[in-house]
Amino acid sequence: MKNAGNQNKLPPFPARLLTGALAISVLLMAGLVWSAYRSYRKVDTVQLHTLRIKELQGMIVHLNEVLTMSARMAAVTGDLAWERRYRQFEPRLDAAIKEAFVLASETGSVGAAAQTDATNLKLVELDIRKQLA
Question: What does pTM read for this prediction?
Fold first, then answer.
């Protein structure tokens, strides 16, 4: 009679092995799901930042042209309205470059943003010299 009760039970070694393998599989699957979710969120964030950087790039080009034209017109005409216009748009350009710099640093493109900022500072300096000349 003792043998009849033991026939329905699995031997302890294979049961523990299968339970352990199942537990490890569940943990690995949970880790993979978590990793995939984090990767998705990161890619989504980078895409949004890249899109905003492209928008800012267009704004920076436009505002740079406005400043250059305003400086030239102020130098040619001597009209202070052009200088006021220049002063009005200069903070907008600075803000766009700073925002692009922050977004670029978050996506790993710091070098390009720093170069843009340095170039902008040189252009502003040149424009101011033209106005004073």
Answer: 0.60
